[in-house]
Amino acid sequence: LTTKIEGATNALEVKIDNFKTEITADIHLIEDTLQHQQQQMTAMKNEIERNNLSKEIVMAGIPRLQDENLYNYFNSICDFFEYGKEHRPFIYAKRFDTRKSGDVRNNTSSSNVLIEFCFRHAKNDFLAKYFKKLKLNNALNLQHLGFTSSNRVFIDENLTKTNYIIKREARKLKKIGALEEVRVRDGAVFVKFPNNNNEIPISSKSQLPPALNNDGPTGNNRHSNTNN
């Protein structure tokens, strides 16, 4: 009788253990599914926000003045970018006091200026002219806006919070050589990995490589000025 009881007990314990294993596996599967769905929802929300910001840029480094006219500043920039008066894009401009999401330098004596274009291609053309001047070592500065100072004026796309964080982390990785290039196009972040010519869109920090030591992957302390 004792042997039968022990056998039944052991069999019951095996069934219980198997049941626990199955339940644990099911719970892990549910957790993985929920996590995947949450990631998809977060990515979708970020994509919707990116699309909403697709016509916007942020300008930093312009001191705030009483009774200032932001549209006059914009027209002065258009003159510097060699727009014809009949080809100047239509925009809406305003100051905002809190740094939202654009990856541009700020100044303690100024707040960023938000510019919204009527058309996205007009925004892209405006940014292209800005970067063209940079490549020609003729960067936009306050003198072009009528100030006496020659401090730089920085312009960049208005990024979502998620994409701003991705860009910030990607630039850190580029400085240590973990990434070859970091670019922003239409509010999305693209990177190139070393020895790879393909641009890869990055929608999550988890897609970035882990941070390396200061010597970088090749033993060289590589630094790159990726700021606009």
Largest sheet: 4 strands, antiparallel
Strand content: 5-15%
Q: Secondary-structure element order, as H and E?
A: HEHEEHEHEEE
> Any idea what the radius of gyration is?
27 Å
- Quaternary: single chain
The percent range for helix content is 40-55%
Number of H/I helices:
4
Gap between N and C termini, in Å? 84 Å
Tell me the total number of β-strands: 7
Structural class: alpha+beta
How many domains, as an integer? 3
The pLDDT mean sits at 85
Query: What is the 3D shape?
Result: elongated
Spatially, the strands of the biggest sheet line up as: 2-3-1-4
Question: pLDDT under 50 segments (min length 5)?
Answer: 99-109, 213-227
Characterize the structure shown:
By secondary structure, the protein is of the alpha+beta class. The chain has three domains: 1-53; 55-97 and 111-158; 159-214, no CATH class. Helix content is 41%, strand content 14%. It has four helices and seven strands, in the order H-E-H-E-E-H-E-H-E-E-E. The chain has helices at residues 2-52, 70-80, 120-135, 161-175; strands spanning 56-60, 91-95, 113-117, 154-157, 181-185, 188-192, 200-202. It has a four-stranded antiparallel sheet with strand order 2-3-1-4. A three-stranded antiparallel sheet has the order 5-6-7, with helices on one face. A hairpin with a 2-residue loop joins strand 5 and strand 6 (188-192).
